[in-house]
Design brief:
The chain is of the alpha/beta class and 238 residues long. It contains 8 helices and 11 strands.
């Protein structure tokens, strides 16, 4: 049996990924499918950390733009990520995958984020779901993914999207757009490719932590990425 290309990964899931075709909230069929894909790679021996967004429940930027204090809105968004983290943990337990939720904010019913505890859980084969972003306003969950990825010594950050990689232009608007199989950090910056927010992208570039962008809704895509097969787009050091 072929071995995975990556022993430890950080999976970045947007809150919107949990909505499926719904307008908001958590679509049970969608979260079940995502968890099944995670189970597949856990059974391969891959150690999995997950950072989850909260946009399916609350997005801090929109209320802030309409007059709400930005820090307050961002804290509300962080709480939404903890709700999603608990939903993921529950779905994983239903399929026999042990998972821990660690929060960057102090919340009594979930574990606080402690790097040493996260590493021990990963080593025991448990999925660790990181909620509440970085615990600070004005930082996105992309930045949390880059930060946690570095802290747990992940070999790659996998950004799960609804698009199967990075394109020269928006493929929905430009039929001539072509997909990159691989692109360097410098090329992505020069060509203004929107991979992650600038802070997250810079962190990954400076630490030479590669990023893979793939379509989480494509059957078997997550497994193919961790096996090192041709799937999505990989961003690497030059």
């Amino acid at each position: 049996m072929a071995k995975p290309a990556f022993k430890r990964i950080l999976l970045k899931l947007s809150g919107e990924a949990l909505m499926g075709d719904d307008a908001y909230g958590i679509n049970r069929a969608t979260i079940t499918d995502i968890v099944a894909q995670v189970k597949d790679i856990v059974e391969l021996g891959v150690e999995v950390g997950i950072v989850i967004g909260g946009g399916n429940i609350f997005r801090g930027v929109a209320p802030a733009a309409s007059g709400m204090d930005r820090a307050t809105a961002d804290y509300m968004g962080m709480l939404a990520t903890v709700m999603n983290a608990l939903a993921l943990q529950d779905a994983m337990r239903h399929v026999g995958v042990e998972a821990r939720v660690q929060s960057a904010l102090g919340i009594e019913f979930v574990e606080p984020y402690v790097r040493a505890k996260a590493l021990r859980a990963l080593e025991k084969g448990r999925v660790v779901i990181f909620g509440a972003g970085t615990g600070n306003p004005f930082f996105t969950t992309d930045t949390a993914a880059a930060l946690r990825g570095m802290e747990i010594d992940a070999e790659i950050v996998l950004k799960a999207t609804k698009v199967d990689g990075i394109y020269t232009a928006d493929p929905k608007k430009d039929p001539e757009a072509t997909k990159y199989d691989t692109v360097t950090f410098d090329e992505a910056i020069h060509k203004d490719l929107k991979v992650m927010d600038a802070t997250a992208f810079t962190l990954c570039r400076d630490q030479k932590l590669p990023i893979a962008v793939f379509n989480i809704f494509k059957a078997g895509a997550l497994k193919r990425v961790v096996m090192g097969e041709k799937e999505g787009t990989r961003v690497v050091a030059g």
